[in-house]
Design brief:
339 residues, mainly alpha, two-stranded antiparallel ribbon
């Protein structure tokens, strides 16, 4: 049952990155779009993320619940020593959702729409930035549970070059996912070419930010290169991701975009796999060689069993409802396809 819970934890993180990441990325794409094209981008974005924008945070909630119930020591350590980036991320989620709702459903179109747009755009950037910072901090070895001063305990645990570079990489990945997903939501060739161009640019940005992650890891003595290339599975995953990236660029050049979403999702999955497989089951790496393990720092066996059963039973109800939600929105947006 423990491995069932761990599998759900990993899957929830992956789906939040793939779906929630594309959701955040839509706001990032809007932020870096010229004024004359922002309204078009906004309309395309509404059509694309409308079916799942409220459901995306379900994966984050599942992640938090699994850690809180099944791995309390891990949850406590992260929520205490990373409480500042966690609070900023959660405030970003709240601000983003509020701005999205008000700018879309506000009955009065006035100057407040400008404020809603700014809040939505910048919170779309800030939220994944700090999500990546949290992820980077968890494996950076900077969390010091024995710290005796505020800066060491609550600031330097996340404010370091490696964590910030992972945050920037996460922002680039979110923008890349959104650009790829939005290609299939366009209704004319001009917009389609515009999002293809944004896909290329965000992909280049992701590669550059990824290189910065490795540089920061080397500078801070984090064995990221060993994690990624020090085992057969990691090398195979990187090779597969690289080949899929080459295929994606070839398809973009040829103007064939049908399977781009699958390729982009596959690439992100391989990245997450390579960065977590090597040090599994250690999910948090502490300063001075300490760690928190999913196997050693789990809750009571009865708790794990109950949690696993709840996750399995919940999937029976949640997943069909999610698929029906997406189907319903697609049917509403494209009624001709369902006659």
């Amino acid at each position: 049952m423990l491995y069932v819970v761990i599998a759900y934890l990993w899957a929830a993180i992956l789906f939040y990155l793939l779906l929630g990441g594309a959701d955040f990325g839509a706001g990032i794409i809007e932020l870096f779009t010229s004024r004359k094209n922002r309204s078009k981008t906004r309309r395309t974005m509404y059509r694309a993320i409308g079916p799942i924008w409220e459901a995306n945070h379900m994966w984050l909630i599942i992640t938090i619940v699994i850690l809180f119930v099944g791995f309390p020591a891990i949850y406590t350590t992260m929520s205490v020593h990373l409480h500042i980036p966690l609070v900023i991320m959660l405030l970003g989620i709240i601000a983003r959702g509020t701005a999205f709702t008000f700018r879309h459903y506000d009955a009065v179109a006035d100057e407040m729409q400008v404020l809603y747009n700014k809040i939505f755009q910048y919170s779309s950037l800030i939220t994944p930035l700090f999500l990546g910072i949290i992820a980077g901090s968890a494996v950076s070895g900077h969390i010091d549970t024995q710290a005796s001063d505020f800066l060491s305990a609550y600031i330097f645990s996340w404010l370091n070059w490696f964590s910030v570079s992972v945050g920037c990489f996460t922002v680039a990945i979110c923008g890349f996912l959104a650009a790829v997903y939005l290609i299939g939501e366009t209704d004319n060739e001009t917009d389609r070419q515009r999002f293809i161009s944004k896909t290329k640019n965000t992909n280049i940005a992701a590669v550059i930010c990824g290189a910065l992650v490795f540089i920061a890891a080397y500078a801070e003595g984090i064995p990221l290169t060993q994690w990624v290339f020090g085992n057969t599975w990691g090398v195979l995953a990187i090779v597969a991701a690289t080949l899929s990236l080459i295929l994606m660029w070839y398809l973009l050049y040829k103007g064939k975009t049908r399977i781009l979403r699958v390729l982009a999702g596959f690439q992100v999955t391989m990245i997450l796999f390579t960065t977590t497989f090597r040090h599994f089951p250690n999910i948090v790496l502490l300063k001075n060689g300490g760690y928190l393990s999913l196997l050693e720092h789990r809750g009571q066996d009865k708790t794990i069993e109950a949690l696993a059963l709840a996750l399995l039973l919940g999937s029976i109800f949640i997943l069909p409802a999610l698929f029906y939600l997406i189907y319903s929105f697609q049917k509403k947006a494209n009624p001709e396809l369902h006659k």
